[in-house]
Design goal:
Alpha-Beta Plaits; five-stranded antiparallel β-sheet; three-stranded antiparallel β-sheet; 6 helices; about 55% helix; rod-shaped; DUF881 domain-containing protein; DUF881; coiled coil
């Protein structure tokens, strides 16, 4: 009888050991967080989707940056084109002003050329009156110095104007004018005045030819378009 109890005790001891061992083995196989293998698979799949989405976001961000750069270049090109067109319009207006198609006004200078008031006895009168050469000297110096428009006794000059002397009068584009000759020029008065009065310049040369020359700075000079003048 005692032998049966001993055998039964041994069997119970072994059974308890097996149960304990099985529990311990099952515990070690499960994740420490207590998440099942199915949940673990779902979490892994979700992480993979997030990684793919992040990669897609990075790709889209690069596409956006490239597109923004293209837009910036287009805007820069448009800006340059706008500036180019503005410059062309500005140049066109300037050239129209130079050829006399536009009326113009602005500060400038007036140069008056007069015949000498004194002619010594026995001297040639032609050596004491204004000729086209004197007018040309003044006009050329004014244009070289930046004058944007020039007129003689109100007759505005164009790119194809002609001037010639006929005795005591000067003909400008078919219109005759007697002395004194007032040459008006629109431009920087200080620059134009300095250019004419430079040592050995136009003022000294004209005065040496017995011509009376005076300069006056003007706050505003107005000149009509040449087309308007031809109609009148």
């Amino acid at each position: 009888m005692r032998g049966r109890y001993v055998i039964l005790s041994l069997i119970m001891l072994v059974l308890g050991f097996l149960v304990a061992f099985s529990y311990q083995l099952t515990k070690e196989k499960q994740p420490e967080s207590g998440i099942s293998s199915e949940q673990w698979d779902k979490e892994y799949e979700t992480r993979q989707l997030l990684i793919k989405q992040e990669e897609r976001n990075a790709e889209l961000q690069k596409q956006l940056s490239d597109t923004q750069e293209k837009v910036r270049k287009i805007e820069e090109d448009l800006k340059n084109e706008k500036q180019l067109y503005f410059n062309l319009v500005e140049d066109a207006e300037k050239y129209r002003m130079y050829v006399g198609e536009l009326g113009v006004k602005g500060e400038g200078i007036e140069v008056t050329l007069e015949d000498s008031s004194y002619i010594p006895e026995g001297e040639n009168v032609n050596n004491y009156i204004v000729h086209e050469g004197h007018i040309f000297k003044v006009i050329n110096e004014l244009l070289i110095s930046g004058a944007s428009a020039v007129a003689i006794n109100g007759q505005r000059l164009s790119h194809d104007s002609y001037i010639y002397c006929n005795g005591p009068v000067v003909t400008v584009d078919g219109n005759q004018f007697p002395a004194p000759f007032v040459i008006s020029a629109i431009g920087d008065p200080a620059v134009l005045d300095q250019a004419l009065n430079i040592a050995g310049g136009v003022v000294e040369q004209v005065a040496y030819d017995n011509i009376v020359i005076t300069l006056e700075k003007k706050d505003e000079i107005k000149m009509n378009p040449l087309l308007q003048e031809k109609k009148s």
